[in-house]
Amino acid sequence: MGTVSLRLNDKDDILIRKYAELHNMDLSTFIRQAVIEKIEDEYDLSLFDKVWEEEQDEERISHEELKKELGL
Fold it and tell me: Which InterPro entries has this protein been placed in (predicted)?
């Protein structure tokens, strides 16, 4: 298992520790979860951007038009 060292000023250190404590998490778990969520968010956004670009030239219909086509 790897170890990461993180340097923080006193204000940030207190903020992060208090937040983790407030959510009943140990510091290591909180930081690991926050970093993984950040990576997942950026990946999701890049995937969205890719799909958005690919779909720009596709024909679209409104929600109302789709309901008419489906007989709803």
Answer: DUF6290
